[in-house]
Amino acid sequence: MVPPANLDGLSHTELKNLVVTLFEQMADQQRTIAALRDEITRLKGGPRRPNLKPSGMEKATDPKPDKPAGEGHGKRGSTKSKLTIHEERTIKADAPPGSRFKGYTSFVVQDLVIRPHVVNFRCERWQTPDGDMVTAPLPAGIDGHFGPELRRFVLAQYHQGQMTVPRLLTLLCSLGLFISKRQVVRLLNVGQDEFLAEAREVLRAGLSSADWITVDDTGARHKATNGFCTQIGNEHFTWFGTTDSKSRLNFLELLRAGHADYVINDEAIAYMRERALAGPVIVRLLEHPARWFANHSDWSAHLDQLGISALKVNPDPVLIATEGVLWGSVKAHGLLPNTVIVSDDAGQFDVGQHALCWVHSERLVHKLDTFTDAHRVAQSQVRDLIWKYYRALKAYRRRPTKRSKAVLVARFERIFTLETGFVTLDRLLVRLHKKKSELLMVLDRPEIPLHTNGSERDVRCQVTRRKVSGGTRSDTGRDCRDGFLGLAKTCDKLKVLFWDYLGARLAVPGCQDVPRLPELVLAKARSP
């Protein structure tokens, strides 16, 4: 920062602002130094500096349950009544002579039988009168030299149990199986097209029926390169997609749910105009009869033909036009019909009807660096106002009325137009006030959540997988990791055991049927 030429000529307010700016720069430098110290400490094997604890606004503003005094947790019921007895053993007692028999006392023990089971299928072969050979087919579920139960165990342990391949291999070998590491990787990645197709259908079912979705992303390593894993979901489904970008263009491509086309329609044109694409460019697109393009190559050739690719203006017409036709494709396939996208204010998620997470917004106030007692008092007062307002929003979601909506709008204006004298806090309040329509989307759509906690919970399994196993080396491995983690999360939300789901899809003998997850997602969305 270049100092003013004449400090004596500055007013009291200007001097105050200058000091606050210098304090902010000093705080940034201190954070940078602390991060470097943490990294040096980590490399030396020492303990790291603890992170700032979350504010706790969500839990603190939850309504307390109406429970009569003295009422404890409900009884869970008899465990024995929920069990299926597979074997009964009679234990003889060493009673002295003259004793009288008084029946039995029951003692139920749950145990687990894990052992290798090798089957030699002797398939009959017959030669027909025509000279052709007929061989009896293997039972359903047999694919290769490893049975469906073993495949289910490997998939469950790796994706749901978050085991690594070496540890999984050690476990299998210790149980008496003869299997190599390469074969374990094949069981995880090869021949999983049906699972990946179902994961894609889950996304399509969710996006076509959801009133709202929450989104988030986290870092992901793929082919020794840093990438990003994007989460999309709500209370009925979860889907993950790992790519090398986190741009809005990438997010729109993910929202197409596997469709590869580019569509010029009313929604695409509206998007382009909203993003300030030049009018003459829109006219060129509308004057040409082509409205649908099968893939990116066809779309790029169309832009070259119209001369749009050669334009060097701001905003980039190719980027905005491409985003527009991607949004047109999303709408053309019936996805996000009236769906609100709730995010943490990351720019790439700002498409369509967009709402902001209140927890992330309050966190900005919570994490402000304060330098004086007046700063700390102002920060505390504003946080208290936001917490009380957040509690009121929760109450509104339970019983929305026109009167309470008007009251909440006026209350928002009072809070976020305050002038506390803490310059950094005042600037933040101004910035949050500009997000009014997104923060108050809940007043028009009370069914949407006030936060993205669901996405943050969902994405933890990806973070754990990254910490345990690092990155993926092949596109198939990446797709299988994302697909199975998403299917496991979706099963959990639909109250379906992932173990039963795998058994049904792998045709494990005796396993009960599990409906297709997309059908369950649609049924959940339609139910009141």
- Low-pLDDT regions: none
Tally of contiguous helical segments: 21
Protein structure class: alpha/beta
Provide the β-strand percentage band.
5-15%
Number of strands: 9
Largest sheet composition: 5 strands, mixed
Helix content percent band: 40-55%
Within the largest sheet, what's the order of strands? Answer: 5-4-3-8-9
Overall morphology: globular
Distance from first to last alpha carbon: 59 Å
- Listing every helix as H and every strand as E from the N terminus to the C terminus, the arrangement reads HHEEHHHHEEEHEHHEHHEEHHHHHHHHHH
**Radius of gyration over alpha carbons?**
30 Å
* Residue-averaged pLDDT: 90
Explain the overall architecture:
The chain is an alpha/beta fold. Among the domains are: 199-349, no CATH class; 358-450, no CATH class. 50% of the residues lie in helices and 8% in strands. The protein has 21 helices and nine strands. It has a five-stranded mixed sheet with strand order 5-4-3-8-9, sandwiched between helices. The longest helix has 33 residues, at 12-44. The radius of gyration is 30 Å and the shape is globular. The mean pLDDT is 90.
